[in-house]
């Protein structure tokens, strides 16, 4: 019997970073879906059913804080951990305001990000 792959949804408007996340996490055996906006965050999250979400702060069009708050207010999705990922100096405060389960600053160390991801899933 094969183990079910962990599923990661990444919301970031930087296409290069989306590709990096996809490459790094797929190399670790994760299934990855990427999104360059968070306009349909509830619908795409329900459709993909990720085990973990990485959320950028500056993402079109509603932004990471509001998108995370929407996820955390949905009874079907609030259990999914959200890690806030941003280059903002106030990332800790932003992640708390958003209701995220963790945060990591850009530029990030992948080993540290993977450690956070695995601790939440």
Name the features:
single chain; 121 residues; alpha/beta; Rossmann fold; globular
What does this structure look like?
The chain has 121 residues and is of the alpha/beta class. It has a single domain (7-120), classed as 3-Layer(aba) Sandwich (Rossmann fold). 41% of the residues lie in helices and 20% in strands. It contains five helices and five strands. It has helices at residues 15-27, 41-48, 64-73, 91-98, 110-120, and strands at residues 7-11, 31-35, 52-56, 82-86, 102-105. Strands 2-1-3-4-5 form a five-stranded parallel β-sheet, sandwiched between helices. Strand 3 (52-56), helix 3 (64-73) and strand 4 form a beta-alpha-beta unit. Helix 3 (64-73) runs parallel beside helix 4 (91-98). The longest helix is centred in the first third of the chain and has 13 residues, at 15-27. The chain is globular.
Write the layout of secondary structure elements.
Blueprint: E1 7-11, H1 15-27, E2 31-35, H2 41-48, E3 52-56, H3 64-73, E4 82-86, H4 91-98, E5 102-105, H5 110-120
Parallel strand pairs: 1-2, 1-3, 3-4, 4-5
Helix pairs in contact: 3-4
């Amino acid at each position: 019997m094969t183990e079910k792959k962990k599923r990661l949804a990444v919301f970031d408007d930087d296409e290069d970073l989306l590709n990096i996340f996809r490459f790094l996490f797929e190399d670790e055996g994760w299934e990855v879906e990427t999104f360059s906006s968070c306009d349909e965050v509830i619908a795409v999250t329900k459709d993909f059913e990720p085990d973990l979400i990485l959320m950028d702060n500056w993402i079109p069009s509603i932004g990471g804080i509001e998108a995370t708050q929407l996820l955390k207010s949905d009874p079907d999705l609030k259990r999914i951990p959200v890690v806030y990922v941003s280059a903002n100096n106030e990332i800790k405060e932003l992640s708390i305001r958003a209701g995220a389960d963790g945060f990591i600053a850009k530029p990030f160390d992948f080993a540290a990000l993977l450690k956070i991801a695995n601790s939440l899933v």
